[in-house]
Design a protein that fits this description.
Elements lengths: L3 E13 L2 E7 L11 E7 L5 E7 L8 E7 L7 H7 L5 E8 L14 E6 L3 H14 L5 E7 L8 H6 L4 E7 L16 H7 L8 E7 H13 L7 E6 L5
Parallel strand pairs: 7-8, 7-10, 8-9, 10-11
Antiparallel strand pairs: 1-2, 1-6, 2-5, 3-4, 3-6
Length: 240
Amino acid sequence: MPRWLTAALLERREETATASTLVLDVPGWPGHLPGQHVDVRLTAEDGYSTQRSYSLAAAPDGDRLELTVQRVPDGEVSPYLTGEFSVGDLVEVRGPVGGWFVWRPDEQKEPVLLVAGGSGIVPLMAMVRVRAAAGSRVPFRLVASVRGPADRLYGAELDRGSPGLDTTWIHTRTAPPGVVRAPGRLTAQDLADWGWPADFEPTVYVCGPTGFVETAAGLLVALGHHPARIRTERFGPSGG
């Protein structure tokens, strides 16, 4: 198990009304792969400590890490990280964690389909950014499900686009003007229209709440994607 390291907040970026990206300086950080996550531990003055896991949001950059944290109402950790946590403040981090839900640009050459539900886009964004940093020509398609336009994490960056990356937003509650698709949950037709055909044998990464991940994986299998090519990462209520 990796050891705990001390991390200092260098910068905060507000992504949405309820989500912030935290740029941390972590001396001694060993590096990471896109798709991995870290444990973050807070310790109070009385010695009480609690920890949560957060996905890494960006490509490796020396001792710097980026985490995007979605505030959970009545949570223990996320309200502090997205609110009181200030530049120069310290937390402890441990990682990187995870080895299955990763994309390795030097090993995987088949097309990639990324399917995100809400803040499940965070580890997938790390893959998008690593692909760009590596100058990879592997074609990527991202299908991201959000409640409405205001909930798009990294919206401006993704909408600017990059060669070989196609992004589609699926709005489940409210859609912006001019969008033909009516608001609603992700469907098999969405994945057929905006994903890769199964016979292209893409590697698929699905991340989001447990119910979303199970539904999306089932739709992909029904469309002919082999279960062994579908990698999933899910999260559920944890107290935030």
